[in-house]
Amino acid sequence: MTSKQKHKLNKAEEKMVEIAIKGLERGELVWTKSWAGGGVSGAINHLTKKQYRGINTYLTWIAYEEGYKHNQWLTLNQILTKMKLTKKRLGKAFWFEDKDGKRYKWYDIFVKRDDGKKQPSYPVEFSQPKYRYKVDGKLYTKEQLENLIQDGATLEEFKMIWVTRCYNVYNIEQTKLPKPKTKKLKKNRVTNAEKILDDVIAKYKGRPDMNIKYSDRAFYSPSEHSITLPLPQQFKEKYNGTGQLHFVDTAFHELIHSTGHESLLDRFENTFFDRDHSYAKEELIAQSGACMMMEYFNLNNTKTTELTQAYLKGWLSRLKNEPTILTQAMRQSTRAVKTILNGDGFYEDYNESR
Questions:
Q1: Which segments of 264-351 does DSSP mark as H helices, in order?
Q2: CA distances from 244 to 136, 197, 211, 257 (A)
Q3: Burial level of 278, CB count in 10 A (0-12/13-18/19+)?
Q4: Hey, which residues does 86 pair with through a beta bridge?
Q5: Going edge to edge, which strands form the sheet with 72-75?
Q6: Burial of 189 (0-12, 13-18, 19+ CB in 10 A)
């Protein structure tokens, strides 16, 4: 039985896997770009200014493929809020109205496509904790839980579960809303890469021991909670001109691994070093997380992106048969990045947000 049979993918998961596999097959899965209108290169919500996380980061791939200059997204309700409109419905028919009762049609809200079709929406997932009451089996919100406890229920009578819902979003350029002002991303010179790594390590709470020495390989040791890396000079000798980027990318990969330690995210299973499902997922977590960190610091270059895609392509057949490996890895990689960069304000809260 495949993972897809064990776990039915939601709409956001299906779309992310579809885009990822197509991109890897043609060798054009784009991870990074310096986007206009925002201080980060990842997808953000235009209204809340929060960055999308987990599998929702696939919106960046959509934005690049569609040629959007802005990587900002909104739900239909958020678009209507910005335009000060409300949605009205009569049977299957619907329209939009302002406070004076003036009606607006779809094409008053969205840009008309050349092919005459409606602008497509893209699914994202939003997860939040709910609490199942063992007495009646019903689900309650955190606020409802607190009220029940005040009325005499005990915390032991509840079981917390994560409930996921999917929403559809649109790129700001699909709408007739004013486009965001262009903000310049901070450009980091290649020669600044090692300093950035030093700062990251210094702020990483619960960080592993770092052993940077002459070595023929880079690895993380869970039992010792330590990372061994070759010297930066070894990367500079191998990658003329971009050695620092490769050194930092490799270090980020191993740092992501280290977040799985029992003192941090406690992600590892007993089969961590077996080449099976758990090994594949852990390597995808580390590689995608490293790419997110390179993106966050605007350190990516063509070569490191190509290497990341080549790495992921090696798992292509596995991803097709077990798509949950990819969806789980994308979620956990963002948690790993947050654990390392929390001092930098990376991702304001833990939950998968719209």
A1: 277-296, 302-313, 316-321, 324-341
A2: 59, 10, 17, 20
A3: middle
A4: 97
A5: 44-45, 72-75, 158-171, 122-133, 139-140
A6: exposed
Rounded-to-integer distance, Cα 72 and Cα 174, Å = 10
Q: Return the H-helix or E-strand segment holding 250.
A: helix 243-258
- Please give the model's pTM, rounded to 2 decimal places: 0.76
CA angle, 10 then 309 then 229, to 5°: 115
Share of the chain above pLDDT 90, in %: 39
> Which residues have a Cβ under 8 Å from the Cβ of 293 and sit 6 or more positions away?
200, 252, 255, 256, 337, 340, 341
Q: What is the DSSP letter of 244?
A: H
Q: Say if residues 106 and 117 touch (Cβ distance below 8 Å).
A: no
Sole residue written with tokens 């991303």: 185
Please tell me whether residue 91 adopts helix, strand or coil conformation.
Answer: coil
Q: For residue 47, what are the CA distances in angstroms to 36, 73, 169, 264, 316? A: 16, 8, 12, 32, 36
Residue range 122-140, pLDDT digits in tens = 999 988 888 998 888 899 9
Arithmetic mean of pLDDT over the chain: 84
Q: Per residue in 282-326, pLDDT tens?
A: 888 898 888 888 878 878 666 667 777 777 787 788 888 888 888
- Which of 48-52, 154-158, 210-214, 242-246 has the highest mean predicted lDDT (pLDDT)? 210-214
Residues in the chain: 354
